[in-house]
Amino acid sequence: MNEKRREAYLNLIQSLLNSPEDEQIALLKQNLELLDDGFARYLREWATQTIAAMESEEATNITLNIVKFSNLIQQFPLGSKSSNMEIAIAGYEAGLQIFKQVTDAELWATIQNNLAIAYSNRIKFDRGENIERAIECYQAALQVLTRAALPQKWARTQNNLGLAYSDRIKFDRGENIERAIECYQAALQVLTRDALPQKWAMTQNNLGLAYSDRIKFDRGDNIERAIECYQAALQVYTRDALPQQWAMTQNNLG
Q1: Integer Rg of the chain from CA
Q2: Residue 4 to residue 7: CA distance in whole angstroms
Q3: How far apart are the first and last CA of the chain?
């Protein structure tokens, strides 16, 4: 990339990291042409070189802002989704250079979880490898996000890991579905209907999909279990309250 482009990337990074979230969104909308794979590469390079030269407290603050920006760009609806994922991945991986499991356990685990989501949604490169990286990140996060210490985060990560196993391309398909089912069932130990009804319904729907795809054991029994899960989800996903989720689950049930 030429120097003019690098300077434009640098100016945008500095503006973003010194702005509150609402202003960051406006900046992104104004600079869509800069949100490309080159920006992701430059962000990775800039973060590595710049943070290494900073004092500890300043490096921590800058890195935290990069991670927050990564959360924003991962969900940003405009521009290239492919490039947005690459930028988010670059930011999260920069964050993991500073925040470590030993010293910043919960933040480290949260970054691992968000990085896993970005890899799951990644468009570039091999889909199978991206899912493997996502699984590795979720498993890393679960070293810290334990059921005993952080039950809701543990359960959400179990649900996300279940989705990754459901999408897994490598290894035996039947075993991957069994692992997904185990993850969803684990999540439902915490995500109860009384405490977290929408998350409970979402996980019931995911479990229903896994039973529908299940290869092992009796096909008829698996379908019956899937139906039970979808019907459970529809206790919360009503047409009046949550019409989109209701329609999705009705479609799965059909």
Answers
A1: 20
A2: 5
A3: 52
pLDDT on residue 79: 97
What's the rounded Cα separation, in Å, for the pair 163 and 136? 13
Say how far apart CA 137 and CA 110 lie, in whole Å: 10
Tell me what pLDDT residue 211 has. 99
144 and 177 share one domain: yes
Tally of structural domains, the chain: 2
Phi, psi of 158 (to 5 degrees): -60, -40
Residue at which a domain ends, from 190, 219, 240 = 190
What pLDDT shows up at residue 254?
87
Whether the Cβ atoms of residue 115 and residue 79 lie closer than 8 Å to each other: no
Structure tokens at 141: 């996060």
- Residue 176: both structure tokens together: 């991957």
DSSP 127-142: HHHHHHHHHHHHHHHT
Q: Measuring CA to CA, which residue among 191, 131, 122, 137 is closest to residue 165? A: 131
Instruction: Give me the pLDDT at residue 1, please.
Output: 77
The SS3 call for residue 230 is: helix
Residue 187 near residue 209, CB atoms below 8 Å: no
Structural domain for 121, as ranges: 3-190
Ranges in the chain, pLDDT < 70:
none
